[in-house]
Amino acid sequence: MKGSSLFSLAPLESPSGSAATETVIKILHVNPVPDALEIWQAAAVEFAKAHPPVKIQFDYLDHELFKAELPTLLQSKGRPSVFHSWGGGVMLEQIQAGFCQDITDAIAEDFNDSFYPAGIQAFMAEGRSYGLPDSVGPIVFWYNKELCEQAGVGPSEIKDWENLFEAVKKCKAAGIVPMAVGGDEKWPLQFYPALLMMRILGKDGMASAYQGAHGGFAGPEVIKAWKLYKALCDLEPFQEGFQTTTTREAAGFFHDGKAAFHLQAGVWVLGAGRMYAADEQGLADAKLGWFFFPEVQGGKGKANDIFGSVYGWLVSKDAPKETLEFMKVWLGKETQTQLAAEGLSIPMVKGTAEAIQDPFYKALAQEVNHSGWIGLAMDQLLGREAGRVFNEEAATVAAGAQSPEQAAQAVENAWSQNRI
């Protein structure tokens, strides 16, 4: 499951039926965690038993290959029936291209009341539903307690950007790598300027920039966010060679106890991230802690304004009619409660939060419930092209090859081509 190429679990054989009558529901996902896949498979087995002509096939691609290959797959005759989505502008492009099926009427009775409203809304366009939510992955700062103690850093005291700056300086002075990041794929770097934008502009300000007001994504407050990011990068907070470090390698670096902080989704750090440690176990819970990305003094955003992804599934235009029937089981309360209880996700299904046993997941789930805003990752919000530019600019600024003003203008130029 750790490979980087398409991995397909063989279609589940039904107890009866022939090749001529078989229906295959193909699900393309990005989840490398075996325990989660086992629960999915168990749900698929039960469904196949009750629907003999149907087979469920789970196909895996890692994140980068998924992003690269999905456009081609959607244009092929062998397109998936259901595919992973982070929502946002990329989803809108897929809907506008005619790849997705309008499932509004099909889910009205059986699904809408099952999920948190924010989850349903994440996979809607112009008031119509094209997919369903799965789980949520808030991006927060994870920290290594032992390394922070060695550096004289108190993570609970990091409330604003200046506090984080000082923590980085203390780590550097103690000979400890402050932050692990996977710069090779660029998108982990975009967390920093994107979160700074959220903390400075707030929800309404971000919406205004999206719409082009006050200079859009090249406005003064956006430039301020890029300047703060540039100042952080000037401290050289990341591990040596971060620009060629993959996301997996960065997770392993952190879980091997080599960096004090890791800005990443909890579902990644606590799940897949541990798999990439040298011992495939990673840091124990007792050695870990987390805190929200700090506020910026004078900013309009709040610390518990969540930045991350609402993970979900889009239904392709020619998916078999049985697809939604399977999704009732796969995304239903029983299966999602299992995933929650095993500490494998923070489901968007109502009534599953109380099943979460892992204290980290439970705390994150509670914060999600209390938050008034979940902001999407910029490379999803802005669509493929403008999102790519945002990621590129985050990497270029980190390398010292671009000014904050140039980065902001490049993003605005790219987004203005798509802004309606």
Notes on the structure:
It is globular, with a radius of gyration of 21 Å. The chain has two domains: 192 residues, D-Maltodextrin-Binding Protein, domain 2; 211 residues, Periplasmic binding protein-like II (D-Maltodextrin-Binding Protein, domain 2), CATH 3.40.190. The strands form two sheets. Strands 1, 2, 3, 4, 7, 8, 9, 10, 11 and 12 form a ten-stranded mixed sheet that branches. The protein is α/β, with parallel strands linked by helices and 420 residues long. The N terminus is likely disordered. It has 17 helices and twelve strands. Helix 8 packs antiparallel against helix 9. 45% of the residues lie in helices and 16% in strands. The longest helix has 25 residues.
